[in-house]
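The following block was generated as part of the benchmark described in Methods. Ligand: fe (ii) ion.
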Amino acid sequence: MVQSAVVHDDFVIPTAKAILDGFQTAGFIYLQNIPMSPAERQHIFETSAKYFRLPMTEKLKHSMLSVHSNKGYSAKGQEKLGEESPDIKETLHFGRENDPQYENIWPEESGELVSFKEDILRFYGFCSGLADKLMRAIALGLGIEEGYFNRFMTFGDHKLRLLHYPEVSKEVFKMNNSQVRAGAHTDYGAITLLFQDCRGGLQVKTPSGEFLDAAPIENAVIVNAGDLLARWSNDVFKSTVHRVVEPPISQGGDSYPARYSIAFFANPNEKAYIDAIPGTFVTESDKKYKGTTSGEYYIERLRATCLRTSVENQPINLEPSVGFHSGFRNDPL
Ligand SMILES: O=C(O)CCC(=O)C(=O)O
Ligand SMILES: [Fe+2]
């Protein structure tokens, strides 16, 4: 059910076809042969792991300041993506550098974290370039002008999210069968590029309602359409529900090892006005959604997640962590 596409220099046409098929059926595709070497990929995963190894007191200094900024550190239990128990993960978010409204929060560059900022920005640039190419391919696939989407994404209010799912006792899942590593959700933005390590546990919901494993494929990146693209395309594309559960293959022992992933949520510029793409409607009354700016839509969706987290937050049965101070450093919701 999952399509796969291969990136070539002249990748646009065949990729466009595969992406289009993938987004209209499974909503998820594997993209292979991306212009990133295995060593570069390993390096960014190591960079992420180095950050998460910092003492909690350090990481909390980088806590997200507000729901609007959506930049910074979020500790285990602070987010609840689905209806299940709070997620067992910690994350660190970055947006575009030089955003006049909200600055990125950078950890101090010492010890293991020397060159952290440079590495993250390079990776952000790589993802942003790849997303631009993919949006071109999607436009061609839809039969509209190749640069259509790129005009809305001249800088792009993207989000880069490092994720760490800590090692967790198998008992945690046995004791609570609604426990997941990340709850079932759809992504908010245009497209997501997802890099996962080899641990497994990512699942994608099929149209018939069952969850299927989206097993790791070495050096591939998963691409999925987010809610904004679904809305933008008048639901021609699907934004598919996915989640992260315990790994399908248990390697013995009492616990599941840590899992790392990196998600790049590619978005239009915050102020870009998003209305149904030409060709996805005939008359105005065919439009399923009213126009909105990308930024307003994003905030609306973020608030829903944050409210769910703060209203229903319950303790996770894990050894003590920083606790469940839902919400953010500054903003009351
Ligand atoms: O960790 C993963 O594989 C999925 C993460 C995800 O879906 C998200 O952050 O939106
Ligand atoms: Fe997601």
